[in-house]
Amino acid sequence: xxxxxxxxxxxxxxLAIVMGLLVGxxxxxxxxxxxxxxxxxxxxxIFSKPKYIARTIIRATPLILTGLSVAFAFRTGLFNIGAxxxxxxxxxxxxxxxxxxxxxxxxxVPIVFLGSVFIASLWGAxxxxxxxxxxxxxxxxxxxxxxIALYTSNYIISLEKVKMPGSESSYDIQETARMSIDxxxxxxxxSTKVNFGMVIAVLASILIYYILFKTTLGYELRAVGYxxxxxxxxxIHIKRNIIVSMSIAGALAGAxxxxxxxxxxxxxxxxxxxxxxxxxxxxxSLIGNNSPFGVVLSSFxxxxxxxxxxxxxxxxxxxxxxxxxxxxxxFFVAAYRIFQWITIFFNHEKPQKEDR
Amino acid sequence: xxxxxxxxxxxxxxxxxxxxxxxxxxxxxxxxxVVNIGIEGMMTIGxxxxxxxxxxxxxxxxxxxxxxxxxxxxxxxxxxxxxxxxAIACITFRADQVVSGIAINFLGxxxxxxLGGRIFGGSGTTPTIPLEAxxxxxxxTILKGKPLLGMMLNQYISxxxxxxxxxxxxYILYKxxxxxxxxxxGEHPKAADxxxxxxxxxxxxxxxxxxxxxxxxxxxxxxxxxxxxxxxxVSGQGFIALAAMIFGKWKPQGAMWACxxxxxxxxxxxxxxxxxxxxxxxxxxxxxxxxxxxLIVLMGFxxxxxxxxxxxxxxxxxxx
Lengths: 356, 320
Known about the structure:
- The complex is a heterodimer of chains A (356) and B (320).
- Chain A has helices at 2-30, 35-47, 50-75, 83-100, 105-134, 138-158, 185-188, 197-214, 216-226, 228-233, 238-265, 277-287, 292-309, 321-334, 337-347.
- Chain A has 356 residues and is mainly α.
- The mean pLDDT of chain A is 90.
- Chain B has a domain at 14-235.
- In chain B, helix 6 packs across helix 7 (177-187) and helix 10 crosses helix 11.
- Chain B has helices spanning 2-31, 39-61, 67-92, 97-120, 147-153, 157-175, 177-187, 189-194, 199-225, 237-247, 252-273, 283-302.
- With 320 residues, chain B is mainly alpha-helical.
- Chains A and B meet through helix 5, helix 6, helix 12, helix 14 and helix 15 of A and helix 3, helix 4, helix 10 and helix 12 of B.
């Protein structure tokens, strides 16, 4: 029975992806372009060269981690809109630790990474604390903390000792703090910043799966997410769980920021607006059905559509069509009963009562 | 001194206005039991449609008095269009309302910038509307030559509309049959259904109202505060509106106070950052003020807030 439900969810997700791409095709067609040509360019933009495949993977890496952050919080009954801010704090910490500390690489990389993850987890825990202690809705708390994170980062980057003169960014981190895979660059070129982030992201998804489904902590967290009152009645300390859950979510999003700085950008930059790693993580998590492995798959989808999709510009198609495609996919993931309804329409069967 | 206060007063209302449209929209939707996290997307499409349609109507019909009003209305209808998608997913197909709302937040900016790119070229910024075709300032002639009062009250009509809407919304929600039914549907849909209220219909109407108001909120940015649409225009204000609605405990008057709090802190931030004051504080630190004060107020004075009982739960007729 359980197996069947999983397959059904998977089927509906695939259908949603197909429908999303179809909506995109219709939009492209209406605005006077050839959708087959456009999607052809997108697929070429992902697969035609090893370099492109590598860049798609690099694009997907932070999304896996922010997606996991959102998914983990969802599983525990919390809506983490704050992955965006936690990402910023992780990236900022990585840029600072990576620049100011001098250590051999074997120590520098783990210290920068773990330090960033730790600070971001405190940032996430703040929202959890506000909810647990003062009853502040986590949606409000995380939205406000996103902006506070953004301006904190901008402020610190603007300081004289941090800011690289003539730029809007911090100084580049030391060579010893970078997690690039140099031997790979022979295959894909030096400008493609292949790094260990993907390994970290996949390990994180395994770890999160393990925590959620194989440990007492995970059981308690999921119990709170499933039915708060029943969990409390069962002796689970809800307030502590909220803080723990938000700190783990923060750690994951912070890891995304750290990986981005240590593997790709090597610096943190002043931001005028949110970059979207956290918000895209919400979409990634939802398309992946909030499951650790689903998140990995949907990150690749997301990374592919956004990276390869930029190629559609060659035809003159505004790349914003990508957002329409992604929005449509998420929409059909939400409204998956449309597909049940369509099958009912064709089969004249009774509607299925069962929820997924 | 008086001038400073007048400046802060006027700026407060200016910045509270777009938020309040979105928050009031949220109040309608969520009181009927449909979570609307898509306010951001609806505001974005509204901001684009208002500015773009005003510009196009100007080209077609010249500078007629009705043109900005038509643009304003079209902005509301554009918000309605996205709201309709949200309603179909959430009400007819009993979708997870948060997921659907997130989809709206991708579709709104996506559509706005795609259409902007197609119609006007470039990166989705619409051409600037000339000053005469922006929304009107109703008291412009009366307040001419009165700088202090002008600074406070010479606002765009969108400001006056939204603050009247607070009263109207309160009246509709608490004093009319329609409003009581709407809230009943959000508190206990099964009981409401038993009494012959069409739960689906009420929720559809509420979500559409929500989209309309959010669309107007977007237009109050692109047709009053500034005079065009640009991709970074809304950037998060829909989420602040959402927060204001929760902060205001799902009530119109509560949402108003929350938006005013946010408006006044924004105004303070602009005031303190102005060269006239001469404070040597980083603008980045000043920019944090509204968010920090909101959090402090929430922690210190407001406490736990909980929404309508059936908020977020899809209704299925005949299900126990």
